[in-house]
Amino acid sequence: MTYNIRLLWILFLLLPGSVLPGSAWAQEKQELTLAEILQRVEDNNLLLQSFGPRAESFRHKADAATAWMPPMVGLGTFMTPYPGQKVEDGRNRGMIMLRAEQEVPNVSRLRAEKSFIESRAHIETVTKGVVFNRLRAEAKSNYYLWLVSLRQIQILEKNEQILTMMKKVEEVRYPFNQAPLGSIYRTEAEIEKNRNMIVMQAGQIERAKATLNGLMNRQGDVEFRIDTTYHPLFVPMARYDTLSLAADRSDIARMNAEIQSMRLNIDAMALQRKPDFRIQFDHMRPLDPMMPQVFSLMGMVKLPFVSWSSRMYKSDIRAMELNIQAMEKERAAMLQETQGMLYAMQAELVSMQSRIKALETRVIPALQKAFDAGFLVYQENKLALTDLLESWEALNMMQQELVEEQGKLYQMIVKYEQELYR
Questions:
Q1: CB 275 within 8 A of CB 303
Q2: CATH number of 269's domain
Q3: Structural domain includes residue 318
């Protein structure tokens, strides 16, 4: 009987159907690595593409900022009597007047306004980096979710092989009264429960695939596979300083761009104290041919530096300076908070890596040896199926816990990298 059971076990492993069904997950048309997916997100994501036209619009606005106001031309009468009045002297008949007027702005102020508007384009450019950091974290999170689900499926499919073998052994032993009928139903229930878990993991993969396709600006049902050999790594850093964080974080880069833009706006507002000019030319042709043609040429200047007018731009400048001070303090607080957060996350990641290593190198190998020893005794019909299932459940639970811990580690790495380069 022991010989027949071992022969049955060998034949079961050699059957075509005994190949891990997980191989079906690898039969997709195209394999995309994580780097390729991130590059496609950066190149094709519609949300990221919206920042380019917005930045370009500010550049066109900046070009328009140096334009002068258009000239004004008018035609009318000058000193013309109302109809019905008696005009005794031809010189009192009035004149036809042509007027041309041009405003001459302060060129230095226009250039300052152009620089300020161009800085808004730079803000849009660095904001794209902030959004891409968020989308990159989302892509990594779903990629790792897919990777962990595949590992779960591999474990579950191996479990199904073992459970199916147990069921076949019990079916062989039952006619000889060497196994109870309930053990067959017990293994069948475990097989069905295992298959339900496979379906659940397959649903997780489909959800991750649809999300990644959406991030790459593709239809959600486009089939592809991922690199199952990829293993995210975390390398602890010796120390974190605020200078390096300020150079790496995209949100700090955006804040720096906003501060610089506000300073350029202050420069533009400060130049409002400089005067603007206006030139006006009038040409008058009398209705009396005996009168000479005359003209009027006038230059005007705006005086914004007078006390009752200067309060407006001076108050705006002061308010902007206070906003800059607030943003600088906020930036320093963000860097300080991030520094402490990264140290805490690094400590947690190191701890998680230690737990995973212990599971991989000590706990699971010991449980595997216990199960293998029990299975040998079970094949010799010296161990009950319930006892073997207890050993299998302990091993299976620990294998599942290992994969779950790996998934938590990968998601923590995503959060760590997102915080480091936010």
A1: yes
A2: 1.20.1600.10
A3: yes
Q: Which residues pair with 100 in a beta bridge?
A: 73, 281
401 CB contacts (<8 Å, ≥6 apart)? 359
Supply the pTM of this predicted model.
0.78
CA atoms of 282 and 295, how far apart (whole Å): 5
In a domain? residue 46: yes
Amino acid present at 169:
V
If you average pLDDT over residues 342-370, what whole number do you get?
Answer: 90
Q: Does 5 map to a domain?
A: no
For residue 285, give both structure tokens: 């042709």
3-state DSSP assignment of residue 221:
coil
Q: What is the pLDDT of residues 34-47, one digit of tens each?
A: 999 999 999 999 99
Residue 70 tokens read as 């258009």
The residue type found at 248 is D
* Residue 2 located in a structural domain: no
Q: Give the total number of structural domains in the chain.
A: 1
Edge-first strand order for the sheet with 95-104 is 72-78, 95-104, 277-286, 294-301
Region of 280 (left: φ > 0; alpha: ψ -120 to 50; beta: rest) is: beta
Domain containing 251 equals 23-78+93-420
